[in-house]
Design goal:
Helix content: 40-55%
Strand content: 5-15%
Structural class: alpha/beta
Oligomer: single chain
CATH topology of the largest domain: Nucleotidyltransferase, domain 5
Number of domains: 2
Shape: elongated
Number of helices: 13
Radius of gyration: 21 Å
Length: 284
C-alpha cells in the first residue's frame, strides 16, 4: 500500500491523491512516468526527489520515514507490507491501565497488556512492566493501540523513560475516518466477527477502583483488572484487520487484499463476579 500512496509527497493532499487514483495512477511508477503532464516543471522535480527518497526508505525498511510523513488516519498504510512479509507477529497490540487521568509522576500504570509474538502478556509489577516495554521497544516493528497517541504512549515514555518511537497505528483516528467513532467497546460491537467482551460494563474509571480494591486486599480484584486490560488488548488485532478490509472496500480500484478476521487470542484470567458485585455495590 505504501507504493500506492502519494499523500506523503510534497503538495499532494488526500483530495489530490484520490483524483490521481481515479485517473488511473495507482503507484509510484505510474505517477512518475506522467509527472510532466500532471504538474509544472518545478513541482515535478520536487516530486521526483521525494519519490526517490520514498523508494530508498522502503527498500531499507525504514518505516519511521513514512510514520513521520503520514497523517494519523493514514498511518495504517505500512501494515499491508508487514503482513505481506510474514511479520504479523511482530506487530505489538498494546493497552495500559493507570491510577488516574494524570501522567507520571502524578500517576503510574497499574496493568499493561501486550499481544506480541503470538503471546498475550499482562503485567502489573513495575520491573516486569519495564522489561515488557523494553522488549516491545526493541523488537516490535509496529504498535497498534486505541487512543494510544494521546494517552498510552506518552504515559509509558514518561513512566519508563523510553523513546517508544516505533511506527504506530492508532485505531481511534483510523476508524474515525470511516465514521466509526466512539470508545473501543462501541467500536467492537459494530463488527460481528470481533470478539465481544466478558468484562461486562467495566470501564476505565472502574479499572482505577479495581486497583484500589487490590491494594486493600480484595481477593481477585487484580485478576479482574488484568482481565479487563487483556480484553481491551486482544480485540485490537481483530479490529486492525477490520480496518484493512474497510480500506479495501473504500478503494476497490487499488485491489487491496481483504483479510479473514483471525481468532481472538485466549485470555487465561476471568472477571470475578464477586469482585464485580463489590465494585458495583461499594461506595467510594
Amino acid at each position: 500500500m505504501l507504493e500506492n500512496s502519494f499523500v506523503h509527497l510534497p503538495g499532494i493532499s488526500p483530495e489530490v491523491e484520490k483524483r490521481l487514483w481515479s485517473m488511473g495512477f495507482h503507484n509510484w511508477d505510474q505517477l512518475e512516468e506522467n509527472l510532466g503532464e500532471l504538474f509544472g516543471a518545478k513541482k515535478a522535480e520536487k516530486l521526483i526527489a521525494a519519490l526517490e527518497e520514498s523508494r530508498a526508505a522502503l527498500d531499507c525498511g525504514e518505516l519511521a520515514f513514512f510514520q513521520e510523513k503520514l497523517k494519523g488516519p493514514e498511518k495504517w498504510r505500512f501494515l499491508p507490507g508487514l503482513l505481506d512479509k510474514g511479520l504479523a507477529t511482530k506487530i505489538a497490540y498494546l493497552d495500559i491501565e493507570s491510577t488516574g487521568l494524570g501522567f507520571p509522576p502524578a500517576a503510574h500504570s497499574t496493568s499493561i497488556a501486550v499481544l506480541f509474538d503470538g503471546e498475550l502478556h499482562v503485567e502489573h509489577r513495575h520491573d516486569r512492566k519495564r522489561e515488557l516495554m523494553e522488549r516491545v521497544e526493541r523488537e516490535a516493528h509496529c504498535l497498534v493501540t486505541f487512543n494510544g497517541a494521546a494517552f498510552d504512549l506518552p504515559f509509558l515514555r514518561r513512566e519508563f523513560e523510553l523513546d517508544l518511537r516505533n511506527p504506530h497505528v492508532d485505531l481511534r483516528y483510523w476508524f474515525a475516518k470511516h465514521d466509526r467513532r466512539g470508545g473501543l467497546k462501541k467500536l467492537q460491537t459494530q463488527f460481528p466477527d470481533v470478539r465481544q467482551r466478558e468484562s461486562m460494563d467495566i470501564d476505565g474509571f472502574d479499572a482505577v477502583k479495581l486497583w484500589r480494591m487490590h491494594e486493600w486486599g480484595v481477593e481477585r480484584a487484580l485478576e479482574t483488572l488484568m482481565t479487563y486490560n487483556a480484553e481491551d488488548t486482544v480485540v485490537l488485532e481483530q479490529l486492525m484487520y477490520c480496518g484493512l478490509n474497510l480500506e479495501a472496500e473504500a478503494h476497490p480500484h487499488l485491489r487491496l487484499v481483504t483479510y479473514d478476521i483471525p481468532p481472538c487470542a485466549a485470555i487465561s484470567t476471568r472477571v470475578c463476579h464477586e469482585v464485580y458485585k463489590q465494585l458495583r455495590g461499594q461506595v467510594w
